[in-house]
Amino acid sequence: MTGPVSERPGGGDPQGPEAGTPDAGNSPAGNSEAGGPASGQRRSGLRNPEKAVRGLGAGTLALEALVLLLAIQPIRVVGGHLSGAAIGAIVALAVACVVLAGLMGRAWAWHAGTVLQGLLLLSGLLHWSLFVLGVIFALVWAYAVHVRRVILG
């Protein structure tokens, strides 16, 4: 067959419908001299990057609280004896996760979340499976902090 291989739905413009707009970054005023976005532009393309990052942090902490609470019984059955102190630590950490998830709008909450991951790692002294959960959630939290830095700059 002859003819165009594919035609885009915006009139066939290969650069897309926003290629000539100033928001696309093609004008000299759209970018700073360093090659990044100008001071008034959004860096990530999100409508509200702060809200998106807060949601990421809150979702991560809420998931951590849920996993901690649901892990009590399997740890008791499979992992051996789980002391009352370990169960208390799990419940306290889960409550702290929920509280911090609600406070993610505050700047210090990210630092408190990092401290919380360290406390979960330290609770591994009470039971080895808590250390494993601490390592997993510390890695997840580190990724969330990385995404926060990338989006907010």
Automatic annotation (TrEMBL):
Membrane-spanning segments: 52-72, 84-105, 125-145
Alphabetized InterPro entries for the sequence: DUF4233
Region (Disordered): 1-47
Keywords tagged on the record: Membrane, Transmembrane, Transmembrane helix
Protein name: DUF4233 domain-containing protein
